Amino acid sequence: MIELKNVSLRYNLNREILNNVSFAIEPGGFYYITGSSGAGKTSLLKLLFLSLKPSDGKVSVFGHDISKISNYKKQLLRRRIGFVFQDFRLLNHLTTYENIALPLRVRGEDEINYKKDVIELLKWVDLEHCIHSKPEVLSGGEKQRAAIARAVIGSPEIILADEPTGNVDPDIASRILKLFLELNKLGTSIVIATHDTAIIKQIKKPIIELKNGKIKIQK
Amino acid sequence: MEKLKYKNKIKILSSLENIKSLNKGRIRSLAPKPSKLIPNDGIAGKYLLIIISLMCFTISLLLCAIILINNTISASQISINLLQTFNIISTLIVILISAAICSVIIFATNAALTSNKEVVQVLNLMGASRNFIAYQIQIKFFNLSILGGIIGCFLTLLTVFAINPFYSQLFNMIYNYDTDIIIINFLNFQVYEYLFILIVPLLSGLIGLVSSRIAIINILK
Fold first, then answer.
1. Which of these, A45, A49, A67, A56, lies nearest to A21 by C-alpha position?
2. Is the ipTM of this complex over 0.95?
3. CB nearest A132 (choices: B32, B119, B128)
């Protein structure tokens, strides 16, 4: 599904974020990416989400080398990936419903086709009561669940989540983790970047640990 | 009497309740209505509309003047170099104002993209194509420039109709021709000449569409 071969990433000549990293994400897998702050978790996720290009090596997403694909192809590939941002990235002028429906709207789908799915998803993440609310009135947990619903709505093959439990209390964190597990059971690959050891202990899955630009995989 | 007043009050209140519940039902049936992906700029949009309207007003006023003066002079069979000079200068002014509309729209598009940078980034990350993002902004400027063109055109028609009765006096005063000129006034315009002025909103819309498109694509690249 996604494969990294001898990938290095440098933001400038001095600072190396990733150093000769190789691993693969299998379809239907569930992985954690861990490491201390500044270890490069977000950069690694950005590479997987085609937001960054590797300085060296090859990143292959759904069989396409991301260094060689066109902007149009990149956008098509992104539609097959769901991303949950650390800072949610919900649009403040849109309602929760509209935020969740956004990935489908940008694909040019008619509302009549997706309205039912969005409302069903809102029920699944327990945000039915917030359907017309704008993000500014939602709590951290509600925003996070809305962000997850937005990542899920387009039926992606893989979901990348950057610190999805970073801004919520332990109860909500556990609930969010259960949502990811449910999605994984339905066949979606999940990659969660986190430094929260409590959630890693809660559901044991392979861990990709980042340290000094190198990775260590714990199965 | 008091009882009647009370009854009326109850009647009014209950009808108000009915209206409220009706509205609620209507809102429910309409919701959720999709919002614009790029939010409106509010005051900036209004200023832009005023600027474009004034520019279109000047363009259509100049076009009117060209048609009027050309008709008047050709009907009078007087060939003067002044007419050619007037036509050239007027055309140049029309081109300059059109270029100014282009610049204003390009500047406003850049400003809109900068102020909505986060929205554009999120759309991009959601897999929106460059064309889709461009369309969201472009349509706003297209509507603004068409509306500006219509307002400008309407103001021109009002102005020309207002000065029409005084046109012959004005012409005589400027050129000092006393009797032998046949004054063609605005009401003698041919249909195609009216259409020539009504092209201004379309031209303005086209300028809005093309210049905002160029600005957006350059930035998105």
1. A56
2. no
3. B32
